[in-house]
Amino acid sequence: MFTGIVEETGVVEGIVSKKNLSVLRVRARKVLEGTTQGTSIAVNGACLTVTGRKKDVLEFDMMRETLKKTNLGTLKAKDRVNLERALKANGRVDGHFVSGHVDDMGRVKAKITGENYTELQISAKRNLMRYIAPKGSVCLDGVSMTIGEVREDYFSVYLIPFTLEVTTLGSKKKGDRINIETDILAKYILNKNELS
After folding, report:
1. SS3 assignment, position 46
2. Hey, which CATH number is domain 8-85, 3.40.50.2000, 2.40.30.20, 3.40.50.2300, 1.10.150.20?
3. Mean pLDDT of 9-35
4. Greatest C-alpha distance within the chain
5. DSSP assignment, residue 79?
6. Could you read off the pLDDT of 44-73 as tens digits, one per residue?
């Protein structure tokens, strides 16, 4: 379980393809503290298990489902990724509850910028849009965001200068893929109502 509050951006050292999986190698600093083999880390919002650590480089095995549902398989050396360690039970929840189980990828439909203003319009499949509500929560590449405007096939989020500085969202451009995890509470409520 995570909160969607990014602790740092790491740098991809590379991806090694093997039969039925890929190994992602990420150089980090802050998230290294207390991290050992078996630790869960959210990488661009996807919960991955640390399978190895060599000094300041973490290794993660990524299965085919992870590569299919997230943008992690498109990463290359020197790309930056958002990193967050798992939530401590005695800690403060500053974002919202995030499972690290990415629902699917969306695309940046548009990026609108102005002085102290950045809006990302995110297009998503219909099955995800049903969980998107104005002023609700969504996790984009591991970043907890409040949803602004909602249209039939896209929604908007607004980035404050701090988010632009400490996450990878500011470097997104039109057409880029983005990991989407919809609000866990919205999923349970809608699914419960449909089963009733």
Report:
1. strand
2. 2.40.30.20
3. 96
4. 52
5. -
6. 999 999 999 999 999 999 999 999 999 999
